Amino acid sequence: MSPDFEVYYFKPERPGVYKYDNDKTAFCLDAGDEFGRFKKAGVILYDKDLKEKRFPFKTSYGIGSLYALAIKGNLKDLTYNFYIDDKIINDPYGRAFTKTESFGIPQKQPQRGILKENGFEWGDDKNPRIPYENTIMYGLNVRAFTMHSSSKVKNKGTFEGIVQKLDHLKSLGITTIVLMPPYEFDECLSIKNSEKPRNVDELKSNIAEPKVNCWGFQKANYFAPKALYCASDDPVNSFKSLIKACHEKNIEVLAHFYFTPDMKPSMIIDALKYWVYEFHLDGFRLSGFDIPYREILTESVLKTSKLWFSYIPEEYTHLLAQKPFFKNIACDNNGYRDLIRKFNKSDEGVLNDFIKLEKANPQNVGLINYVCDYDGFTLKDLYTYERKHNEDNGENNFDGNDINHSWNCGAEGESRKKAINESRLRQIKNILVFLFIGSGTPYIFSGDELGNSRYGNNNAYCLDDEKGYVEWKENQFSRQILSFTKTMINLRMNNPILHMKDEFKNLDTLGNGFPDLSYHGFEAWRPDLGYNSRTIGLCFYGPSSGNRDDRSFYVGINMHWENHRLAVPKPPKGYEYKKILDTSGKEGLSKNNEIPVAARSISIYEISSKGSSK
Predict the structure, then answer these.
(1) Is residue 82 situated within a structural domain?
(2) How many CB atoms lie within 10 A of CB 339?
(3) Disulfide check for 448: which of 104, 154, 379, 514 has CB 3.0–4.6 Å away?
(4) What per-residue confidence (pLDDT) applies to 205?
(5) What phi and psi, each to the nearest 5 degrees, are found at residue 296?
């Protein structure tokens, strides 16, 4: 290591590593809880052989809990860490880190911050900025998405692997991918275990066993892309290449950020702004503890970034009162996940709430509709298992949610019975219809369009194996689901009435005899909204979306276990009802202003001109 380094001391204004006085590199550490307690602290530089040289801070140059020094010299091929007494500390503001040897294996040497910076040519890259009403979201875990042998990509489990699957996402109709934490986190952790725990607290207090956290919801280095998610040794440019490739296909990229209770609001804001500036990221899904809602909602840099919260506390809703120039804030459609599951398995007493949640589309905030996510059952498992099967997690099946509102259609686990598999396929199709005719922004999780299974595990955070990976299936069942998913996305995106910018008024504002959205039952215009009702007809009148030639649809929904006939309103003169889709796979024609809807199925009819080939 060169002996020609010159060291300078100064009073810092911010933590991290950055250029100082043009020709020097500043190293600044926030000592945090160690402030005033340590005997020695400073910077460690490593050469390629991991030989190290230490540079101590001078406490007289500290300000608050910040300590810094600047080094003049050639540092580009060196790596670094901080130290406090005998403890080695990764830079919390580090922009890139060395790659560990393999995923899930505890390392003998700590990761080191990378000082070398490589240029990146963005060209004419620009953020797509797709409105929520035109957005189809797709969640994925970077590693699990392409690690399975069936993915057939060159660089499995990496950002580069995602790039190799962009044609699949584009053909599916996806506009926005949502990455589970793509930043640097230590996936090696300990989960408590016990052979005979009497309760959850006892489970957590017993002997620790090594585990892998594949999801990344923990304390992390929030400024650095995860090195093991890169095929190269340059994590920064690897992630930038992913963003650029997605933007070239007009696909947005959001990242899921999870914040621990010890995170400072200023650090959270700095991290979000950094990913927007440095990586051209299109937005964030935000969760965790002590989220600084006010600071995020009012931050100027984030005004055109999609910001997805699970909810926004009531004390901050006044910040959303004014209609935004670009509607960038979104929340979960509260209750949608469980209610759609209950309605689809024929629970009673949910029809009224179903109508409200399917229609919900507030003016100033987007709503995200999803039934399956990274946690819980996959879409296929939702109708293959009634009970969780988390034994592989090593926690005696105590982890994960016990209430899933699932239905195994008559047999627990895989079945060869034709009737059971037909029932499962129908239930999956029903869910997809609900998602893509709802007014909120639909979100599906990776693999659900392929019939992916985790074999009943509803908490697969530690399954770094083929059970936890997306299996790129190519069988009849998966092909039917994939084809149906594409059909529903195309139906939604090609018909403005099915992805309206504003909420339906349920009024005939154009004076043409049809409201934009109307409800029907066994009699036209008179839906049965009673506690025991499980059937309803939804009529979407296309011209209400602004163009007289827009298509109109009647969606007959029957979640009862018996067949029914639903009444349809009299169509405009010269028009008739033509079936375009049926989740039961059965034929059936409208008759005397009625349509047949098979048990636990959905039929969609287009109101088209007589003689039309549509």
Answers:
(1) yes
(2) 22
(3) 379
(4) 46
(5) -70, -45
Contact 471, 405 (CB under 8 A): no
Confidence of residue 613 (pLDDT cuts 50, 70, 90): low
Q: Hey, what amino acid is at 200? A: V
Inform me whether the pLDDT recorded for 194 exceeds 80: no
Q: Starting at the earlier edge strand, list the strands of the sheet with 24-30.
A: 6-8, 66-72, 24-30, 16-20
φ, ψ (nearest 5 deg) of residue 114: -95, 130
Band of residue 190 on the pLDDT scale cut at 50, 70, 90: low
Same domain, 255 and 332: yes
Q: Using CA atoms, how far apart are residues 523 and 604, in angstroms rounded to an integer? A: 17
What lies within 8 Å, CB to CB, of 418 at 6+ separation is none
- Say which amino acid occupies 214: C
- Alpha carbons within 13 angstroms on the beta-carbon side of residue 522 total 7
Whose CA is closest to 556, among 535, 574, 542? 535
Q: Please report whether residue 124 resides in a domain.
A: no
At 218-253, the pLDDT tens digits run 999 999 999 999 999 999 999 999 999 999 999 999
Q: Establish if 280 belongs to a structural domain.
A: yes
Question: Residue 143 belongs to what H/E stretch?
Answer: helix 142-146
pLDDT at 557 over 90: yes
Answer whether 185's CB lies under 8 Å from 220's CB.
yes
Q: How many domains does the chain have?
A: 3
Q: Tell me: do 484 and 559 sit in the same domain.
A: no
Q: Which two tokens stand for residue 531?
A: 């506690």
> Do residues 56 and 86 both lie within one domain?
yes
Long-range contacts for 470-476 (Cβ within 8 Å, ≥24 apart)? 470/140, 470/144, 470/145, 470/146, 470/148, 470/151, 470/446, 471/148, 471/150, 471/447, 472/148, 472/150, 472/151, 472/152, 473/150, 474/150
Please check whether residues 357 and 406 belong to one and the same domain: yes
Same domain flag for 302 and 354: yes
Alpha-helical (H) ranges within 299-390 are 336-344, 351-359
* Residue 456 and residue 536 in one domain: no
Of 197-201, 342-346, 606-610, least confident by mean pLDDT is: 197-201
Query: At 86, which CATH number?
Result: 2.60.40.10
What letter represents residue 163's amino acid?
A: V
Tell me how far apart the alpha carbons of residues 417 and 32 are, in angstroms, rounded to a whole number: 61
Amino acid sitting at position 286: L
For residue 462, being part of any structural domain is answered with yes
393 close to 467: Cβ distance less than 8 angstroms: no
Name the token pair of 556: 């007959």
* Backbone φ, ψ for residue 504 (5° rounding): -60, 140
Amino acid at 493: M
Residue-level pLDDT at 209: 62
The full DSSP string for 131-194 is -GGG--EEEE-HHHHH-SGGG--SSTTSHHHHHTTHHHHHHHT--EEEES--EE---EEEEE--
**CATH classification at residue 581:** 2.60.40.1180
**What's the pLDDT tens digit per position in 334-355?**
999 999 999 999 999 999 999 9
Structural domain including 62 reads: 6-114
Residues 452 and 392 in one domain: yes
Residue of 117, 343, 375, 390 lying closest to 237 (CA atoms): 117
pLDDT tens-digit readout, 389-405: 999 999 999 999 999 99
167: nearest Cα among 148, 189, 152, 149: 152
